[in-house]
Amino acid sequence: MTPPNLNRSLGRIQEIYTDIAKVADKVTKSRCPYKDAKSMCTAMFACSNQNWNGQHSPICTAKDGDLNYRKAWRL
Questions:
Q1: Cα–Cα distances in Å, from 63 out to 11, 13, 48, 60, 68?
Q2: C-alpha to C-alpha distance for 63 and 32, rounded to whole angstroms
Q3: pTM (two decimals)
Q4: What values do phi and psi take at 69, rounded to 5?
Q5: How far is it, in rounded angstroms, from Cα 9 to Cα 34?
Q6: What is the rounded CA–CA span in Å between residue 64 and residue 42?
Q7: E-strand spans in 1-75?
Q8: C-alpha triplet 49, 53, 54: angle, nearest 5°
Q9: Could you read off the pLDDT of 11-53 as tens digits, one per residue?
Q10: 20 near 30, Cβ under 8 Å?
């Protein structure tokens, strides 16, 4: 038999992770998936939104919200 507090806690954790997943899904549709929290580009390929500017790693110059990163790839 499962303690009632455990079921309540598991339900709350599921709600929290569901909310996180919804926000993450929304953000991935408007933000380049290769841009980290410090606006550095983590892509391992050339992209027209990369600005090396003397840096060890490129800076992502794409603006959040209006980015279609797929057009930035150099094929």
A1: 37, 33, 13, 9, 10
A2: 9
A3: 0.51
A4: -65, -20
A5: 34
A6: 16
A7: 50-51, 59-60
A8: 140
A9: 999 999 999 999 888 877 777 888 888 888 888 888 888 888 7
A10: no
